[in-house]
Amino acid sequence: MNEQNLNFEAKESGIRIDRFLSDNHPELSRSFLQKLIRDGLVQVNNKSIKANYKVQSGDYVSLQLPDLTEPDILPEDIPLDILYEDDDILVVNKPKGMVVHPSAGHTSGTLVNAVLSHCKEHLSGINGVMRPGIVHRIDKDTTGALLVCKNDAAHHNIAEQLKEHTIKRRYRAIVQGNIREDEGTVEGAIGRHPTDRKKMAIHVKNGKPAITHYKVLERFGNATYVECRLETGRTHQIRVHMTSIGHPLLGDEVYGSGKNPYHLQGQTLHAQVLGFIHPRTGEYMEFCAPLPEYFEQLLNKLRK
After folding, report:
1. CA–CA dist 249, 127 (Å, integer)
2. How far apart are the C-alpha atoms of 91 and 183, rounded to whole Å?
3. Which of 73, 117, 262, 284 has the most CB atoms less than 10 A away?
């Protein structure tokens, strides 16, 4: 990726600079933006600023994206379940237990390792060294459809669709308990938990607006099979929202009750439908990732 500058004017006041940049460029991770701020590559009104700077309406913000360096992560020949591929995008069906991009403790076996091997040099570089091609993600133990961008133009386009909440994302989940209503909406800002930094929480200070719509598909008495439609895409959104109404996902080791009678590996959540406008052709495309085997087996158990 060639070095490039992104310039824009702030329309609001009182938001910390890293969050302001993240809101305007959701394709860039918060940690990557914070590094750019520390490196002096973010300026406000032509002056370098500190990480705790809060933007004011009318501020002129300039963000300089450096040349992409070669990733420290290695390509790995890991089989991918490919739902669709062309010169611009790759849609994969992510398996359970696979981390999307490398981080502390997960430097190999990730989707990025697999994608680097499959796509070679054909990946977008906007999100920095550790996340080539990755424009959105799903949790390690969540399965299903995930979109990878092969060039920067596609990455920018998909990121804008994410920002505008126009991408269609429908999930299948099995939650604890019997949901009374046939359908409903959970609305509540999500942000980092005030005391447990590994968790997210609802109704926290500086949380981002989040909306999840759910519809009951089947009832099993002590569990409910639901479809969840995301209007926004916050970290752990479905897991946090369903827990907030008293129905955590079965197997959720972070937000659940700790009971796991079905010996599940993490939350029972599957990203089934992914729909978006193709970044080059402008045509709407929609993909459906089949339910994983463990999910089907669990449904069969609950139906008996």
Report:
1. 30
2. 29
3. 73
Q: Which residues pair with 183 in a beta bridge?
A: 215
Could you read off the pLDDT of 228-261 as tens digits, one per residue?
999 999 999 999 999 999 999 999 999 997 777 8
- Sign of the dihedral defined by the CA atoms of residues 64, 69, 73, 78, in that order: positive
Known active-site residue 139: yes
135: exposed, middle or buried (Cβ count in 10 Å: 0-12, 13-18, 19+):
buried
Which is catalytic among the residues 139, 141, 152, 252?
Answer: 139
Backbone phi, then psi, for 124, in 5-degree steps? -70, 155
What would the two tokens of residue 86 be? 């062309």
pLDDT at 1: 39
Residue type, 149: C
By C-alpha distance, which of 159, 111, 99 is closest to 279?
A: 159
Between CA 96 and CA 289 the distance in angstroms is 13
